[in-house]
Amino acid sequence: MNNNVVTRLSSSGRISKAVGNYTHITKIKPNSTFYTFSGQIGADLDGNISEEFNQQVKNTFINISNLLKSINLEPNNVIKVNIWSKEEIDWEYFDKIYGDFFGKTPPSMTVAYVNALGLDAIKIEIEIWAAG
């Protein structure tokens, strides 16, 4: 994947195969603008947080999409995704939403299971970094 700012690379060294939908290496073109975003949660546009985990996943990606659009960026500008989840992720559902959002060559990713997030109702929080 290459959008003239962000390039996702495969490792040419000895490294284990990715165990999920992510790229091991993401390269940013010099003199690009680097963006960090606050973690996004599964609240809908009215601020309501669903009790259902997969609905929170869906809403979180809607929020991320809207953030990117607000500064004229697209999912292929995302260089890193950090995911914190209080519940076991339904990977079949998550990978469908994630794949639809990022396409065949997703960005670098880290996943962590945690005991708590900012509010009790929040079950997943996703933070992105981007370059444009």
Written account of the structure:
This protein is of the alpha+beta class. It has one domain: RutC-like (60s Ribosomal Protein L30, Chain: A). The chain is 23% helix and 27% strand. It has 2 helices and 7 strands; from the N terminus they run ββββαβαββ. The strands form 2 sheets. Strands 3, 4, 5, 6 and 7 form a 5-stranded mixed sheet that branches. Strands 1-2 form a two-stranded antiparallel ribbon. Helix 2 links the parallel strand 5 and strand 6. Helix 1 packs parallel to helix 2. It is globular, with a radius of gyration of 15 Å. The mean pLDDT is 91. It comes from Acetobacterium woodii (strain ATCC 29683 / DSM 1030 / JCM 2381 / KCTC 1655 / WB1). This is Endoribonuclease, L-PSP family.
Feature tags:
single chain, 23% helix, 132 residues, five-stranded mixed sheet, two-stranded antiparallel ribbon, 60s Ribosomal Protein L30, Chain: A, 2 helices, 27% strand, alpha+beta
Short description:
Pfam families: Ribonuc_L-PSP (PF01042). With 132 residues, the chain is of the alpha+beta class.
CATH architecture: 2-Layer Sandwich
Order of helices and strands: EEEEHEHEE
Percent of residues in β-strands: 25-35%
| SS element count, helices | 2
Pfam families: Ribonuc_L-PSP
Organism: Acetobacterium woodii (strain ATCC 29683 / DSM 1030 / JCM 2381 / KCTC 1655 / WB1)
Protein name: Endoribonuclease, L-PSP family
